[in-house]
Design a protein that fits this description.
This protein is of the alpha/beta class. It is built from six helices and seven strands. It has a single domain, classed as 3-Layer(aba) Sandwich (Rossmann fold), CATH 3.40.50.720. Strands 3-2-1-4-5-6-7 form a seven-stranded parallel sheet, sandwiched between helices. It starts with a strand and ends in a 5-residue tail after the last strand.
Amino acid sequence: MKNVVITGTSSGIGFDLVKIYSKKKYNILSLSRSQINIKGVNHVIFDITDQKSIDNIKNIIKKEFKVVDILINNAGKLINKPFLDMSMEDFDSVFRVNLFGVANLIKNLYPMFNKSSHVVNISSIGGIIGSSKFNGLTAYSSSKGALNILTEVLAEEFKESGPKFNSLCLGSVQTKMLEEAFPGYKGQVKPKDMAKFIFDFANKGSSFFNGKVIPVSLSNP
């Protein structure tokens, strides 16, 4: 059975992903800043911006998994503020979660990937050139745009040895993060439905895609 590592699992899409993988008896390592209540799941409190936290996860995986077949980088941070109200600390905190932490986790787990491993970066439709943009999301959208470029470059750099890298750029999903950033706004997709899509893509997509930035949205652009 495949070994799966998922970040950002305390709620929303990540939480539903853990439930799906758990029901299908995958070996899961669930990572988030908060505890979760899913029986029988190997969950570790995790801060993607903290090197000690990443070192701890690396040691756990070496002992328990040996190989990471699927890594789903789902952890994310969104601050909704007008650009002129954004401090550099705000920008830094968003990029540390959405870009720098992802890059650091991938780098640290690289020795445990193999040629067939698949890294799925959960990005945003707002990070794609030409898509609709929203006021207040300068840091969030630009960090996701950078994550998409990271995905493309890593796929090229490791195309001979693996793993494969892809970004799924999600439209509006009715998550806690969306509700907090845009009170009253209703997402087009439920977290559990998006989780089902991501599950299928993470397991099968690497046979067809590498280095791709894929919009997953009901709106166009």
